[in-house]
Structures are given as structure tokens and as C-alpha cells.
Amino acid sequence: MKTFITVSRAWTGAIFLLIIGSCSKDVGLSDGSYLNPTPPAQNAVDQWIMENFTKPYNIEVVYRWKEALVQRERYLYPPTLDSVKPALNIVKKLWIEPYSSAADPYIVNRVAPRQIVLVGGVNNNLSGTKTLGVAEAGKRITLFEVDLLVKADRESIAQFIHTIQHEYVHILNQTKPFDEQSYGKITPEGYTAQWYNSPANSTYLADGFITAYARANEREDFAETASAMLLRSRSEWDTLINRIDGPGKKKIKQKEQLVAEYYKNEYGIDLYQLQEAVYQATLKLLQ
Asked: For residue 24, what pLDDT is reported?
């Protein structure tokens, strides 16, 4: 229902004068301002970010607290300063540099989030799961648990880099979509929005999914398959798949083929070459 307010002509002039008078009244504002427009001083980490992310790739890194960039209802906090550079070095060595060397050296310049947000702690969900990373409209990636990263432990590195590898696959897909219909036909009966409550979580490999989360939908399945491959050498990947019993082995191999074809056809990237580059870079980080 619309509400209309009518003001007679006789009162119009009086109202106008009242407004003018009110605006001219001295309300006694304080001399100072509570807002500080001065940007924080650049420290050594800021300078390193500028030289390694902002200048070469046009990627802004946000590690200081900005409430507007995170979910306000969650208990989240910024990372400690000492955690920032080690985490970003892993991002650079295991994501940016391998992709840049796999085919097009400017792929990250052309297709990448323009902002990376770092959060120190865990982002817990009411479902009992936790969110490790978020990609927003292909423009921003938020990475959680930065303070919990152990840079000398391969498992810890794998969990952290899995997040950005997974989210970057989404950005690649948003730029050049994959064939969801063909991909979804491989395991159409296995997808469920309640993947975390599914009794089949203990049999996801046998059912043709590389992780339990891959059961969420075709897009998450594609990103999980690609990112899971990039966490292992080809030999480690083949060993994992060959141990699967039942029809799951064939189904995951079919998904692997579609993912590899997508990378080659849409971006000119040999997925297995990229896989080897990430693996070798991981070994160097652990030395």
C-alpha cells in the first residue's frame, strides 16, 4: 500500500523557512574528527606484498581487519603479522608460479581474484563443518586458518593450498564454464546438499567422488577433483585411484579425463604438467 503526504500551499513557505533556519543554527560540533584518513604506515610485509602480488599480478592482499569483508556473525579475527608472509609465499609458490609456468605466463594476470583476504582462525558452520575458503564472484578469495598453517608440514600445507586451488578452479569455471551436464551424468545419483550428513560419506570414493564434499554438486565436484589432483604427484594420484574398489574407480577416472580436457581445451594447460610443477614446488618448500 502506498502512503501519500499532502502539504497545503499556506504551510509550504513556513516549512521552507523552518528548514533554512534549522540548517543555519550552530550545533556546536567538536573541532576534531573521529575518523582518521591517514593510511597505516607500510611495513616490510606490505612492501613484500607489493613486489610479489600487487605489482606483478594486480592482486591486493588484505590482512588487516576490515569488518565489511567478513561475515559479522562469525567469530573471526585477522592473522598475526608473522603468519602473513609464510602463508602468501605458499600461495605464490604452489599456485601462481606453477600456473604461470604451465602454459600462459600471464594467466594469473588475466584470470585471478583481484583481492585475497586473510583470516587468522577457523570459520565454523552451524552444520558442524568449517569453511576453509570462499570465492566471491571471481573477484575475491578469502582464506581462513592462516594462523594455524604449519609451513614445514606437508599435510598442513596441502589443506591450506587445497583451499586456494579449489577456489581458483571456480574462478576458471566462471570465466570459461565447463560442461556441467556431461560431467553430472557420471554420478547423477550421488549429489546432495546435505553431503555432510550423508551415510555415504564413508563410501564416497567407492561411489565415484574424490572427497565427501565433492558430493555437494557438479561444480564442487569438478573443483574438488582438479584441486585434489594438484595436491599429489601423478604417481600418488594414480595409486589413490587404483586402490578404489567397485565402480568408483572408473567414475573418478572419467571425471579426471573431463577435467584434463577442460584445462587443455579452454586454457591450453596440460593438467599433468601443472600437477608435476606443484608437486616439485611443494618438495622445495619442505626442504
From this structure: 46
Return the DSSP state at 61: E
Angle at which helices 271-286 and 154-175 cross, to 10°: 150
Backbone region of residue 56 per phi and psi (left: phi > 0; alpha: psi in -120 to 50; beta: other values):
alpha
Mark the ranges of the chain whose per-residue pLDDT is less than 50: 1-25
CB burial string 85-111: b at 16+ within 10 A, e below: eebbebbbbbbbebbbebeeeebbeeb
Q: Looking at the domain that runs over 42-175, which CATH code has it been given?
A: 3.40.390.70
CATH number (3.40.50.300, 3.40.390.30, 3.30.70.120, 3.40.390.70) of 178-287 reads 3.40.390.70
Length of the chain: 287
pTM assigned to the model? 0.82
Smallest CA-to-CA distance from 133 within 58, 40, 206, 220 is with 220
Cβ(92)–Cβ(282) below 8 Å: no
Same fold, 42-175 and 178-287: yes
Domain ranges of the chain: 42-175, 178-287
